Amino acid sequence: MAEIALISRAKKHPHSVAIQTPASCHTYQDLLNRSAEIASVLLDAKPDLQEARVAILIQPGFEFVGAQWGIWRAGGVKVPICLSATESEWEYSLTDSAASIVLTD
Fold it and tell me: How many angstroms separate the first and last alpha carbons of the chain?
C-alpha cells in the first residue's frame, strides 16, 4: 500500500507541534508513532483493510487524530460517531455504515 501524502508531509516535520492544548503538546512524530501503532493493531498482519469501515468513538484531541491517521494508514475508512448521540443513534450509525471495527477511548 502506498503511503498517503499526509503521512509523507508529517515525516518532513517530525519536531513541529501538531496538537497543543493547555495540558499537553504533541509533535508530528508523536502522531506518526501513535497512528502507526493503531494501524498495526487494525491490520493484525493483513496487508490492507481494503476500505473497511472503522467507527471512531473518541474524545476530540490527540487520540482522536492518532486513531484517524491510523485508520487511513491501514487502508480503512473512518466513520465518526457522535459522542453525544443516544444509544439508538449509535446503533443506527454502526449498522448503516457497516462498520466492522469500533475504536473507543
Answer: 27
